[in-house]
Design brief:
Helices cover 17% and strands 39% of the residues. One of its GO terms (molecular function) is structural constituent of ribosome.
Length: 169
């Protein structure tokens, strides 16, 4: 019986070698009004703010028993807790998508959030990109208010991960 358990454990997701800065799988074992309790297979369960699991409408996207991808911020934070972040895992996935669109010269969807000096801020899954005013249309557009708050397709013309700099057209 012990050999079977040992074999099962070694083959489970909890036997994976986990290091800080990695995307890991974690099971949702409890949800409160403020937190989600996750088990990533490390020595302690993790408490993650519930707002990291809410969609844009404010609805909770997870339920008990779900497996989610999270970013391992720290294996032990000094208080014996494992620090996980759903938001950082989403950001990592979005950056991969942005870099892929940049390298393949393909289209990516975004949301024109607001006007800023020289152009617009575009949200690509919670990551800010810049849309220069000169690249909004083929010819100059004077009234751009109709663009704000709309979804559109963009090409990534510049992407620098280290500088957190994305330019779209």
């Amino acid at each position: 019986m012990n050999e079977n358990f040992e074999t099962l454990f070694e083959n489970s997701k909890y036997s994976q070698d986990l290091t800080k800065g990695q995307i890991v799988q974690a099971d949702v074992i409890d949800i409160t009004s403020d937190h989600a309790i996750l088990n990533s297979g490390l020595k302690s369960e993790s408490v993650v703010a519930i707002n990291q699991f809410k969609n844009q409408e404010g609805e909770i996207e997870i339920k008990i028993g779900d497996t989610v991808e999270v970013f391992l911020e720290d294996i032990e934070d000094g208080e014996g807790q494992t620090k996980l972040s759903r938001q950082r895992a989403k950001n990592e996935a979005t950056w991969k998508e942005i870099m892929k669109a940049f390298e393949e010269n393909s289209i990516i969807n975004g949301f024109i959030k607001s006007r800023v000096k020289g152009g617009f801020t575009v949200l690509i899954d919670q990551i800010n990109a810049f849309l220069p005013g000169s690249l909004v249309d083929i010819r100059p557009v004077r009234d751009t208010q109709y663009l704000e708050g709309t979804n559109s397709e963009f090409k990534v013309i510049k992407a620098e991960r280290k500088a957190n700099n994305i330019v779209v057209s």
